[in-house]
Design goal:
single chain; about 250 residues; alpha/beta; Rossmann fold; ten-stranded mixed sheet; two-stranded antiparallel sheet; 8 helices
């Protein structure tokens, strides 16, 4: 008799979302969250890591490549998320990948140097993940990796290396990227991100009654049954909230 394989799930910490993916992300998977500017990608990723520490006791790492760690902490307080509290408890680590690039001093515990190559960049993230025994990771964002490393023409190789090391670490990861024209089928900046990820989530806007409404679409999620419908979501005082039974666009 063949024993049915059960996929271990990781709760997203995003109200309503896990109902769409059979209870959570497959453990150890890499998920791409893509969308235009202002669609909520950073909030989605940080919420995944923060709620992991707050609700499930799972340590996590945030690699911020678009804003300084101190700015990220301040912005997330708007949702009542005290990142520093869990940093002090060793349940959360923020890697500052901005200060050195723009030539600003940093007092952060974890700081990426300004001249790291791809291999050193990935090795540093690996060390921090192991240092706090992280189970969750978010890297915000892929275009900033290319900018930082001055290796945009080699982004495919870097992303393949990144995917390999993430699978080796066994963390459940979210990578964010820009979707230049999602309405025309372009859901990532380089056209390779969606192929290295095991899951792809699109966050976007739709005009409805002369107003922009947010929606979420799961384009891919391996080992998971999911709908291909567009579900409404909003970003309120508690973060990202998805409405699986709401009006489908």
């Amino acid at each position: 008799m063949i024993t049915k394989y059960t996929v271990k799930r990781v709760k997203s910490g995003i109200p309503g979302f896990d109902d769409l993916i059979e209870g959570g992300f497959p453990s150890g998977t890499t998920v791409l969250v893509t969308g235009p500017t202002g669609s909520g990608k950073t909030t989605f990723g940080v919420q995944f890591v923060y709620k992991g520490a707050e609700l499930y006791g799972e340590p996590g790492v945030i690699v911020t490549l678009e804003e300084r760690a101190q700015d990220l902490r301040r912005e997330m307080l708007a949702f009542g998320w005290d990142l520093e509290k869990y940093e002090k408890e060793g349940k959360l680590a923020i890697i500052d990948g901005v200060s050195a690039v723009v030539g600003l001093p940093s007092e952060e515990q974890y700081v990426l140097e300004g001249n790291l190559n791809a291999e050193d960049f990935l090795r540093y993230i690996y060390r921090v993940v192991k240092a706090i025994d992280a189970k969750r990771l978010v890297i915000d964002s892929i275009p900033s990796i290319a900018f930082r490393l001055r290796k945009e023409n080699e982004i495919r190789e870097v992303l393949l290396q990144l995917n390999t090391i993430l699978l080796e670490m066994g963390v459940t990861s979210i990578l964010t990227t820009e979707a230049p024209e999602p309405g025309r089928g372009r859901i990532s900046r380089y056209g390779i991100e969606e192929y290295i990820a095991r899951g792809v989530i699109l966050l976007d806007f739709i005009e409805k009654e002369v107003e922009l409404k947010r929606y979420l679409l799961i384009r891919k999620m391996r080992e998971t049954k999911h709908s291909m419908k567009k579900y409404p979501f909003e970003i309120n005082e508690e973060g990202v909230v998805v409405y699986p039974s709401g009006e489908v666009y």
